[in-house]
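Write out the 3D structure for:
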Amino acid sequence: MAKLTKAQREWRPGMPKKRRSTKVMFGSTVLLLEAFVAFFGTLVVFGLKRGEVAPGIILGVGIALSIILVLACAVLSKPWGIGLGWALQLILILTGLAEPTMFIVGILFAACWWYGIRMGMKIDREVAQRDREQAEWDAAHRDGAEPETP
């Protein structure tokens, strides 16, 4: 039998499912898309500037940036995770120094990042408010009496 995770071991019937942050999900989506763009951008720069810059440097920096973008998804729920995401947005924009088209791509992704984080925070606030209101309603109607229907 497979080993159970901590969450699986602690689960009991009737326990509410822990909500995931929409802000983190939106941010992770943008960062993963950026990782793909950074990887393929690396291949473009490798093809265009192979004679000007050492191929090892191009591939090393580009693949490292892609990996960092993927790994940053894991820390978005930490207090400093969003700041790291903003730093990565700046780095992606600065890749335009190697390939000028990346200035446009980086700015567009930074706009997606801003919008995703902003809307994710708004949705998370609304969900928390709805959960508080549901808990209040449940507490007020805990007596178990079914409302009469005519």
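DSSP finds five helices and no strands in the chain.
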